[in-house]
Amino acid sequence: MTDVIGKKQARVRIKNLLLRAYIGIKEEEINNQQDVVINVELTYDAGDAIHQNAIEAALNYRTITKQIIAHVDGNRFALLERLTHEVLSIVMEHGAVQWAQVEIDKPHALRYAESVSVCLEAHR
């Protein structure tokens, strides 16, 4: 099998991670958990993972997902912007991540709208 020349940049997507949190500033939002839908997209150099075919050489996106769940599920946040920033920070704590984008939806936050979302990104 021939090898492709160049960087082996992988794009990983964690799609529609559905969690519940206290999110908002109104009394109803402070007292009742609501759904939040988290989407993460990130890139990292997967050259070692491709060549070694070993989990130790890959970015462990399961670990990242578990960290996000532990941070968000059942916790309190006033602003969607702050929650999005905190989740992005968790992703970027992993040194192998070169670029990441986090979008968090708050379903039914506005009348007549399916959801409201905030999207933030960072890169090294």
TrEMBL record:
Domain Dihydroneopterin aldolase/epimerase as annotated: residue spans: 12-122
Pfam families: FolB
Top-level division of the source organism's lineage: Bacteria
Signal peptide interval: none
InterPro entries given in the database record: Dihydroneopterin_aldolase, FolB_dom, GTP-CH-I_C/QueF
Enzyme nomenclature, EC number: 5.1.99.7
UniProt xrefs under SMART domains: FolB
A GO BP entry: folic acid-containing compound metabolic process
Parts of the chain that traverse the membrane: none
GO molecular function: dihydroneopterin aldolase activity; dihydroneopterin triphosphate 2'-epimerase activity
Catalyses which reaction(s): 7,8-dihydroneopterin 3'-triphosphate = 7,8-dihydromonapterin 3'-triphosphate
Protein keywords: Isomerase
SUPFAM superfamilies xref list: Tetrahydrobiopterin biosynthesis enzymes-like
Keyword Coiled coil: no
A GO-annotated cellular component: cytosol
UniProt key word DNA repair: no
Similarity remark: Belongs to the DHNA family.
Protein's recorded name: Dihydroneopterin triphosphate 2'-epimerase
